[in-house]
Each structure stands twice: as C-alpha cells, then as structure tokens.
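As agreed, record passed on underneath.
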Amino acid sequence: MPYTVRWYVEKRVLLSRYEGVVTLEDARGQITEGNNLLRQGIPLTHSIIDMTAVEKLPPLQAASEFMSTDLSDVRDKLGWTIVVTNNKFLKFASSLFVPMFKVRQRFYSTLDEALTFLQEEDSTLPPLKK
C-alpha cells in the first residue's frame, strides 16, 4: 500500500505518508482512513501529509472527485493541514487539492519544519520532536 495513516500524537496530530506511485484509489483510502481518525480526534486536530517519497500522483483532473467530500462532522475539530514535499509539482497539485476541503494549510520541505510550525502554533501539544 503506497500510503499509511496513523496518529503521530494520539487524537491530536494525524500523520499520513504517501510513497511511490499513488493511485486514485490510494487517495480515496487515505482520505477515508484519515477522516475516520479525525472524527475521534480532540480539537484542534492537525493533519500532516508527508509526500516526500511520492513518485507519481493521479491525474489532476481526478481531484474534482473529492470536491464533494463531506467534512462537516470534523470541520470544527480541524486545525492545520500541512503538506510536506520539496517537489514543485506536488506543491502545485496539493495547493489545488487541499483548498477543496476549506482547511488551513501550509507547505514545508521536511517533517521537522512541519512539527516546529505546529509546536509554535498550538501550545497545547506535547513536545513533537523525538
């Protein structure tokens, strides 16, 4: 499976990682699993999407399928969505895709940068770097 979804900090920070060739089915699966965990989260619940190991994404035209994804039951719980990637195309694609969900987003090149940002933005989180 080219993605994993797990709690980085139980019920507070969700970490999704993609790698290799990502299909539309993979994206659907990651969104479904992530949303299921977010429903269990304690506000504010943040999401980090690590795309540093992605080789290929589904075509951008397929992103329109996700516009109808309903996040109404988790919207009040959502904090930041952070996309981690150095790839300019992935940043561009993510900048088109993530706003469909109307969430606060940031882009960083490394997981450490993303964790530093979250630590500065949310003082209720425990120390994030291990």
